[in-house]
Amino acid sequence: MNMSKRAAARQLRALLIQLFPAAFPAEDTAIQPLPIGIHETLHERLTQLGYSVDPGIIQQVLAGQTGRAEYLEALVKGDSRIDLDGNPAGPVDELAKVSAAGKLDVMRQRQEEKAKRRQQWEAATAARQEERARRLAETQANRQAAENASQQGVLTPRRRAAKPGKPTMAPPPERPKVHIHYAVSAKPKRVPKKYQGKKTLTLKKPSD
């Protein structure tokens, strides 16, 4: 329904409340069952009163009223229908009661599902907002700690946490220390002149 049809339906609804308040009450709780085929009678009465109304708009207004939960409840609980002037216009048969009860059940089920989806959406939104606030607070705390450490001249290196499931590498084994001792023989052996007076090096592994 476009905006022009919606506006026309609202105008016709307001007109029917003024012309036929018994059949079209302003309060939904006062709605009563209307006779079958009321759209034809309504179109004739409006024409007699000098109103030119599109029959399609009349159907839309009637569908809006008869599709309400209050109207369906009136069919289930009521025993008679009324005409445009509020006069009795025949009983409400059992088939109409059963049909209205079924429509009410479907309507309530849809409302419950809609409310459930709404609750789930609100819970998910609250969880996202809480997580966002927690991350923001953590970021601000880390930033403040870094600023404090920088002012104190202490820098704490950031270490990456090991990923879950990834094995950590063991540190390399410590190499044995080698001490270098310089020894000069008291009595130099006979060696070539170019090696005479030179210092000899001996490598000694430290004892455990």
Care to describe what's here?
Strands 1-2 form a two-stranded antiparallel sheet. Strands 3-4 form a two-stranded antiparallel sheet. The protein starts with a helix and ends with a strand. Helix 1 packs across helix 3. The protein is mainly alpha-helical and 208 residues long.
Provide a compact summary of the structure:
The chain has 208 residues and is mostly helical. The chain contains five helices and four strands; from the N terminus they run ααααββαββ. The chain has helices spanning 3-19, 38-48, 55-66, 69-77, 94-152; strands spanning 80-82, 88-91, 179-183, 200-204.
How many helices? The count is: 5
The spatial strand order of the largest sheet comes to: 1-2
* Annotation, overall tally of beta strands: 4
Shape verdict: rod-shaped
Distance between the termini: 95 Å
Return the structural class: mainly alpha
Compute the average pLDDT: 81
Low-pLDDT ranges: none
Assign a percent range to the helix content: 40-55%
Share in β-strands = 5-15%
Order of helices and strands: HHHHEEHEE
Major sheet attributes: 2 strands, antiparallel
Radius of gyration, CA atoms, in whole angstroms = 47 Å
